[in-house]
Amino acid sequence: MENTERKPIVLSAIQPTSVPTLGNYLGALKNWKMMCEDYDCLYAVADLHALTVHPEPAKLRQQTLEMYATLLAVGLDPEKNIVFIQSRVPAHAELAWILDCYTQFGEASRMTQFKEKSAKHADNVNVGLFAYPVLMAADILLYQANFVPVGADQKQHLEIARDIASRFNALRGETFTLPEPFIGKIGARVMSLQDPTQKMSKSDPNPKASISLLDDPDVILKKFKSAVTDSEAVVRYADGKDGINNLMSIYSCCTGLDYAAIEKEFEGKGYGDFKVKVAEAVIEELRPFRDNYKRLMDDKQYLLDTAAQGAEKASRIANRTLTKAKKKVGLLLG
Ligand code: ATP
Ligand code: LTN
Questions:
Q1: pLDDT beneath 50, residues of the chain
Q2: Catalytic one among 33, 199, 275, 277?
Q3: What order do you get walking across the sheet with 9-14 strand by strand?
């Protein structure tokens, strides 16, 4: 995919840490698919980022393949987009080192995700975890991306990517495009079904808290039925109704209805009816994904071949920017 039509460039990535949740889907993957028509899009499986949590090697390999299949199964066409695995494009790690040297210790220390993850895993606060946002900046800047579709939790990482890029540009001359986050209005922060003050997360140990994209329909229904709500028994969007607000935003994302229309639909009805309707909407939304995913996972060779082609196309673009950055910092090229 050469940028001959000069469409704006979009890049995003997702870690292969486990099966994506409804949060990953509504906050990120669904937007990735929507952007395919109007932008030149690159989407990656961020396997290098996943190394920060020391996954078991065989498991990481399997989950990387599964996440690659997931990206295709949500409808990202590998002919129209570049869909690739991060570690297969060595330029990411190379540029990350250069950018490490243009990132201040203080600014990286302020990253909320670093603080949260290092508090949660105090036994493994490695340098990779600290430099995680710099690798993410390299992912984005290598492709001169204009927009980065992510959930709200990644906003701060986008800001540091911009800061690193502008510092580099100011010191070494115009090299990188400054990226902007693309955060959807609804679905940017899907909350846990068991504690609606916390975001739904793949790594939540409580399986009832999140919907996995591969959950069977009856499991999805059960999880929604046991979602934590409040005692008011009125379906309306309001402060203090975190559980219902969350279900309303999920329903809105899956049906396209706005909050006023949802309130009207459930006027005089209890939470029981509402939860069943939300579950049904989610089941329908995910049905094509489940079918595609199963089919793709049965054809491992196709996945490997497509990933190899994706890496080749991505490398061609990434290497241009890498060479430019190397020259700017004074590395001797042949
Ligand atoms: P982990 O639990 O392993 O940290 P995660 O579920 O937060 O993972 P990531 O791989 O870090 O998922 O994120 C992939 C994409 O999904 C990112 O764009 C992120 O912003 C988005 N995302 C993650 N959780 C949510 C959520 N609850 N609501 C909306 N978007 C989300
Ligand atoms: N840190 C991101 C995943 C990620 C990413 C990126 C997102 C890695 N590299 C580049 C956008 C652009 C996360 O979602 N946790």
A1: none
A2: 199
A3: 82-85, 40-45, 9-14, 147-149, 180-182
